[in-house]
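Section 5: illustrative case.
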């Protein structure tokens, strides 16, 4: 008699050893989940014949091998169904009735106790393991080692985890460094900070002014001024009705312009990162100008002309800084551009998540839109979920 079994090749292999002797002692295994290749039955099974067995997909063998004895197979060739045990996830609650075991492809939904609005679905894979599990924290946020960054508000008096609602405010420990990232973050109910911790790097300095120097003499001129350094100047004729003054370098900008006056109109106010075009003038000096910003800088207000009336100029505009997108975005698990890139004030730019990460929003995005605000790159969310 010939048995024909048309079943797929499986992956669990069971070796069978038989000793020489009587024929037909070892019968066909009764377990229907044991796979036996058809060509094995061209001859009668007998003692002394060696055979390999497999389990069908979704099942695993219960023993390493079976031996053909006078009493038949020892132990019986059996296969057990691959199941996932009930998931044990700390600080989580299963949605629905929890079973002791789940079959392959079965799904389970749960939510974190400290973040009940987030529903997470996991699936039992063919290896008997859960796919898609996300950890649920106990609702506290952990500290992080900070370099060149100090906490100026919100640090606890003792070293303990931060509780929900705890706010931290940061500042660079070196006044000559610039902060990248948020200046304040809050501990959320899911144990994550509202935004990643910031970084401080690079020097914050002011360059020597290069415009309107025909009206002033710099008294302590140098190439670069550190944060909070003072630049003193003396006014030159005919704008020396005011003898002179001082400027202070604050966070990479001069806090004032040169203040030199005369009975007529003083020079037009200096515009940092910009320039002016003369629109009208008299023998006594310039009376009307038009301001523009250098490349990538944006005027904070649109006004065609600025006038001098009774020796006083209209308040000049400001040139809002662009944002450089560089390696600093890697702290948010975002891919930096391949070359130096600048984004104008109030403009947005899309950055992709680094490989293996997605953004933890409702849509589970693979990208984040960042926005520039006067030289500060606003990153409201990060790619903070590891793909399963």
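Designed sequence:
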């Amino acid at each position: 008699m010939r048995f024909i079994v048309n079943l797929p090749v499986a992956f669990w292999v069971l070796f069978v050893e038989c000793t020489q002797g009587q024929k037909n002692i070892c019968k066909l295994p009764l377990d229907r989940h044991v796979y036996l290749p058809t060509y094995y039955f061209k001859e009668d099974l007998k003692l002394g014949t060696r055979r390999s067995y497999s389990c069908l997909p979704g099942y695993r063998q219960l023993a390493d091998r079976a031996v053909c004895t006078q009493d038949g197979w020892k132990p019986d060739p059996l296969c057990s169904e691959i199941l996932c045990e009930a998931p044990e996830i700390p600080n989580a609650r299963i949605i629905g009735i929890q079973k002791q075991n789940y079959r392959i492809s079965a799904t389970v939904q749960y939510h974190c106790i400290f973040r009940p609005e987030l529903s997470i679905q996991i699936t039992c894979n063919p290896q008997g393991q859960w796919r898609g599990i996300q950890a649920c924290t106990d609702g506290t946020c952990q500290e992080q080692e900070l370099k060149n960054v100090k906490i100026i508000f919100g640090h606890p008096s003792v070293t303990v985890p931060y509780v929900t609602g705890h706010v931290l405010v940061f500042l660079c420990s070196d006044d000559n460094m610039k902060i990248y990232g948020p200046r304040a973050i809050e501990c959320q109910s899911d144990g994550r900070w509202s935004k990643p911790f910031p970084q401080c790097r690079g020097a914050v300095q002011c360059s020597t002014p290069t415009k309107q120097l025909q009206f002033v003499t710099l008294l302590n001129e140098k190439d670069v001024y550190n944060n909070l350094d003072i630049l003193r100047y003396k006014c030159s004729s005919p704008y020396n009705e005011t003898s002179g003054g001082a400027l202070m370098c604050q966070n990479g900008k001069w806090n004032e312009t040169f203040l030199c006056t005369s009975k007529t109109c003083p020079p037009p106010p200096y515009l940092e990162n910009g320039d002016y075009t003369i629109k009208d003038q008299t023998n006594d000096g310039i009376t009307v100008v038009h301001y523009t910003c250098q490349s990538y800088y944006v005027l904070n207000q649109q006004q065609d002309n600025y006038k001098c009336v009774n020796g006083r100029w209209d308040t000049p505009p400001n040139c809002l800084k662009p944002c450089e997108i560089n390696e600093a975005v890697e702290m948010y698990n975002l891919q930096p551009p391949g070359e130096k890139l600048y984004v104008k004030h109030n403009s947005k730019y899309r950055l992709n998540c680094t490989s293996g990460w997605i953004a933890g929003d409702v849509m589970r995005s693979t990208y984040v839109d960042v926005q520039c605000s006067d030289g500060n790159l606003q990153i409201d969310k990060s790619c903070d979920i590891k793909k399963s």
